[in-house]
Amino acid sequence: MQRPGSTRTSYSSLWREFLVFNSTARRFGLKRHRGKPGGMNVSTVFPEGYVENERTRRQTPPIPKEIGELDLERFRRVKEFVGLEEVSRLEFLVMLFAEVLGTFLLVLIGCASCIKWATTPNVLHIAFTFGLAVASLAQALGPISGCHVNPAVSFGLMVSGNCTFLKTVSYVVCQCCGAIAGSAVLKMMIPKTQIENGLGATMLGPGVSVAQGVVMEAIVTFLLVLVVHAVTDPKRTDTKGWAPLAIGLTIAVAHMAAVPITGSSMNPARTLGPAVVEDNYQDMWVYWVGPLIGGCVAGGVYRMALRANKEDDEGSYDF
Q: Quick count: other Cβ atoms within 10 Å of Cβ 20?
């Protein structure tokens, strides 16, 4: 039982507690809401004196939700462009071996057709030797590594988004090594009396300037890389089955036009091999600058203007 007077005492204590709470609420900015259920409002969450209002919301620009998605998409594309996962696989060693072997055979057989024996080889002879050699190698090694066997082709495919950066660099190193090995083996196979006639090194024709050589090499390499993109485009159904022949005929046609002018390299590795073995690097930069410019321009042109079904771009490394 409650003693008389205890009710007054309890009311007094409750009144004092209410006054303390009211003063505390005013200090921290709390407000009573008549007729509304109690609960947490803005003032109970944020620090003292901070109340979010409409003006604050107008001054603070909203953060779009798409920013995080764009960053993730850009990171994914950069990751695909670099291609670290691709080159770290064990199967990639087989692809590198195929590039070494393909460039080795191309330089060995192609440069052998350029050596002067009893008669000087004509342009048609050299053109079809290189063209048919590439067609044969593309048929054999294409399903394994793509049979680039040419740094200009690798760089052109990288520009168009069909070859990763690390894969391109690895291919170029292997292509150069294979070309040097092919020239070295060719030098061991021919008699010493024939070595004086050269190992099929490319050189500018009489009266041809270095600028003319660069332009010619860029044009013929542009044609080659453009055809490579066209016949290997998975979205085209009219080129199935005859990609090696088309590439080989393109090389033969380019040789017929450019052999008298520049020797028709179209392939920096093909020029590097005999130059290293013969220790003769005259005008070497012409056969790197010209083909690389032509190959990269062809990759960009095909990507931007000539690619089939441009809307569906699954093999792209844009970022």
A: 10
